Amino acid sequence: MPTLPQHPDLILHNARVYTVDQRQPWAEAIAIRQQHLLAVGGDVEILPLATSATTVLDLNGKLVLPGFCDAHIHCYDWSLGQDQVQLADCRSKDAMLARIAARAAITPSGEWILGRGWNESRWGDHDFPTAADLATVTGAEQPAIFWRSDMHSVVTNEVALRLAQISAATPDPDGGVIVRDETGQPTGILKERAIDLLTRQLSSPSAATLARAVRQAMTELHRLGVTAVHDQRVWKGNDGPRMLALWQELRQQGELRLRVNCNLAGHDLPHLAALGLRGGFGDDYLRLGHVKFFADGSLGSRSCWMLEPFATTREGSADEYGVVLTPPDELAAAFRQVTVLGFPLSVHAIGDQANRTVLDLFEELLTHSPALAIPHRIEHAQTLHRADLARFAQLGLTASIQPLHCTDDIDTAALILGPRSERLYRFGALAASGALLALGSDAPVADANPFLGIHAALFRQRPDRMNEPPWYGDERLTLPQAIYGYTLGAAHAVGWAQSIGSLQPGKRADLIVLDRDLFTLVEQGVTSREIADTQVLMTIFDGEIVHTKL
What pLDDT is attached to residue 4? Predict the structure, then answer.
């Protein structure tokens, strides 16, 4: 039988379509049939394809982009955290305590109060809050934990310390620090693995609670123009199996409205080997991703592994050079095991010593093992000595970066690194070296809004401080580079470049319509929130409109 002509279900026309396809960067119209892009071109080419059954939308010159892919997001924590006390916008310790007091007033006695997002650098300070501070608002019976914005430190109160049996006599766990005062008493600040002493006191959310939170999170991501994610695991957490099970359930029920590259935790490696799982398992909706390990902690918590000591730590203290979460010999052994299974590796590395060590390990690995189809990657790649910049491209590694951390850390870096801040967030240098950049948010550590990330990548300054010069402005990205990192770069990083990331015939129909033209704004000059306040008027996932304001 002859093949019947394919007619589009939906046509978008009279638009400014930025395709992220070098062969055809711009177009006016797109035709969609079922889950795929049928045609991309001018109005005169696309409109005649319409039939009486085709929905035709005139976009009146609006900018169209591929759907964004958040290359680093913690879906478990971000989804569940929406109901916790939100502290990210607190601009003083008093504001933080006032918000906690308001929640404490409506929390039943004895029930845990949980919150996240505080960042002392936004207060113009480098001292963390303490258990003594919390005592003024949580009382003597209410246990409470509040995660710092980077999720690598918490502040907790005396009640929680007693429940966890943390005292002056409690030793620091491997890979963790109990911060103490001059007398040796815990201050209420716990870093890295020491946080586990507290969280084991908490009950896990029910399956129904998690599913409800993730469904709401998908809706929010659609509102932000995000149609794909690289779902990250946390250090020694138990979120991985629960998220993978839920993603599969949503996929089976036809409710998965995101493309999910689900990372696997390094501590689950024995299970991968025992089950005979191999890299690349999955499809265009849900795929087993990289196996993730942690080399160190974070900059803000002073727990990243540095070549030189922090300016604000006491000489000889346990975290003077940061915290090594996984010793290099353990990482090397794990690298070999993972590559035998055909999985790519993902390593969290923030400090310049951590990044150098991980680069050395990858160089050794790639000397003896063939490169995989999906590249290995370093998450954050945040602090880089100039001698290590070219090594990402040389080794074929992805630099998974989060631009919003750059502007969040401007004040922190000045306090704890001083002139060494020039080593931070080398976006421009990495791009110039030819490294593959994949851009993400690290939510809930930072805001999941990609337009805040794009602003940070372009201007290296906060929207409310645009009257100040860009912070190490030579490291800025261009708008095409930033969009690429959130689209085709992120797709390349997980082996999805043949399916998503650019608007080309045959690819999946994942795209967004914006309320303003980012290219015109950049040409005219951005002075405040012009890009940061961008709204998504329509999100299309797999050919289906999943969000619209049109």
Answer: 46
Tally of CA atoms within 13 A in the half-sphere of 464 that contains its CB: 2
What's the CA gap between 59 and 470, in Å, rounded?
A: 34
Cβ contacts of residue 123 below 8 Å, gap of 6+? 90, 91, 92, 93
- 32 and 91 inside one domain: no
Among 138, 168, 199, the domain-final residue is 199
Same domain, 18 and 116: no
Tabulate helix, strand, coil % of the chain (nearest 5): 35, 20, 45
For the stretch 190-200, pLDDT in tens is 998 888 898 88
Helix H or strand E encompassing 29: strand 29-33
Tell me if 94 is assigned to some domain.
Answer: yes
Count Cβ atoms below 10 Å from residue 353 Cβ, excluding itself: 21
CA angle (412 as vertex; 534, 117 as ends), nearest 5: 60
Strand order in the sheet with 113-118: 85-86, 113-118, 144-148, 153-156, 186-192, 176-180
Q: How far apart are the C-alpha atoms of 464 and 13, rounded to whole Å?
A: 36
Residue 1: per-residue pLDDT: 35
Q: Comparing C-alpha atoms, which of 434, 450, 360, 451 is closest to residue 399?
A: 434
Please tell me whether residue 351 adopts helix, strand or coil conformation: coil
User: Does 99 reside within a domain?
Assistant: yes
Q: Strand 345-349 to strand 186-192: parallel, antiparallel, or no bridges (unpaired)?
A: unpaired
Angle, nearest 10°, between helix axes 131-138 and 93-104? 40
Domain hosting 544: range is 10-67+508-548
Contacts of 196 (CB under 8 A, 6+ apart): 173, 176, 236
Give the separation between CA 269 and CA 337, rounded to whole angstroms.
8
| Nearest of 73, 65, 123, 58 to residue 402 by alpha carbon | 73
Instruction: Tell me how far apart the alpha carbons of residues 366 and 5 are, in angstroms, rounded to a whole number.
Output: 48
Domain boundary among 199, 220, 251: 199
246: number of Cβ within 10 Å: 21
CB atoms inside a 10 Å sphere around CB 155: 25
What count of Cα atoms within 13 Å lies in the side-chain half-sphere of residue 518? 26
For residues 57 and 125, membership in a common domain is answered with no
Residue 437 contacts residue 489 (beta carbons within 8 Å): yes
Structure tokens of 395? 């080794």
Would residue 490 count as lying in a domain? no
Structure tokens at 437: 């950049």
Close Cβ partners of 162 (under 8 Å, ≥ 6 residues apart): none
Show the tokens assigned to 460.
């290296």
Question: Which parts of the chain have pLDDT scores under 70?
Answer: 1-5, 312-319
Whole-Å CA distances, 167 to 4, 14, 134, 303, 414: 75, 67, 17, 21, 33
pTM recorded for the entire structure = 0.90
